[in-house]
Specification:
mainly alpha, Tetracycline Repressor, domain 2
Length: 236
Amino acid sequence: MKSSEKPKKSKAHAAPPRARRAYLPAAERRKSIIAAAQQVFARSHLNGARTRDIARAASINQAIIFEHFESKEALFQEAVVQPLISAMRGMHERRETYESASSPDELAALAQESAARHLQDMVDIFPLFTAGLFSDPDLGRKFYREHIAPLLRSRGEILKGLVRDGLDLDFVGLANFGIIFAIALDRHFGEPADGGEAGLAEIARQFTRMSTGGFARDRTGHEPQRRKSKTGRPGK
């Protein structure tokens, strides 16, 4: 071998080829960025989340984020606020099924089914919900006042005719929502829950019983007007 010749690099020492990023249509790429952003925002909220962390979670270059969203705040609106608004509206609209009940037992069955879905929805969106409310004080206040509070107040029209005299409809809607939120809080931060969906169904049953019959013991000595049936639902 001539001294001027450099030894050729063996294939074992050659630099590995860079992995090419998978091509996605713009709409699919946007969805993947939103999904990654939801994970990061749920963990770090708006102020703590960094676009480079979102880019890493989406396996893209940071610059690509700004090809789809003009700012981190715009991405937060799309990834967190809009899904929450849709979920809250869905939870509200399902209450309209109560109007189709033809008997107390049917009403109780519809209420329990609705409660189970409400609970599951809140458990699913809880990380985003807390991010939407508590990421930034001004943003949380705006989100609550413009979207959540009106939905809670409008439940009065659906609950009208179902609530006993003397109870404020707005308060009942707020109290029911507060219980659902507290259950989701416990499912996320409390001791690991047993039973999965079955466990949540039992919680929904308890929630429905308390909502329709209250939780205070009858101290008058009279038989309650509504008593538990063999199916576990409130009976006549």
